[in-house]
Design brief:
By secondary structure, the chain is mainly alpha-helical. It has five helices and no strands. Helices cover 85% and strands 0% of the residues. Helix 2 packs across helix 3.
Length: 118
């Protein structure tokens, strides 16, 4: 169930990541709700947020490559590299941002749906 929560949370994160703060929180909340329990919700929200942060860096770097491709030669390479770095903000910052917000959302989702004892 935890793996399913992480996968669904990462898909929701990819869809909602363009909404600042609220998007990653909601995606983490969905992952935590599916996982059930606060501990599993924290883990599912954090992992889906981390995956979402990595996806965002890849997409932003691709956007920088498109800008660079529009301009030929050295100016295009410079513009593409700089815009990719600025838009991406680095994999560490992106992963921390999405991971932390996913963690918080996952905790709330896990609190809302406690894990059942077997």
């Amino acid at each position: 169930m935890l793996l399913l929560a992480v996968i669904i949370g990462a898909v929701v994160m990819a869809i909602l990541s363009s909404i600042p703060v609220l998007g990653p929180l909601l995606a983490g909340f969905v992952a935590g709700l599916i996982a059930g329990g606060i501990g599993r919700g924290l883990l599912a929200g954090f992992l889906s947020g981390t995956i979402g942060g990595i996806i965002a860096v890849i997409v932003f770097a691709g956007v920088g490559g498109i800008f660079g491709g529009l301009l030929a030669g050295a100016p295009g390479a410079a513009v593409g590299g700089i815009s990719g770095a600025v838009l991406g903000g680095g994999i560490l910052l992106s992963t921390l941002y999405f991971g932390f917000l996913g963690l918080v959302g996952g905790a709330f989702g896990g609190l809302l749906r406690p894990r059942r004892r077997r």
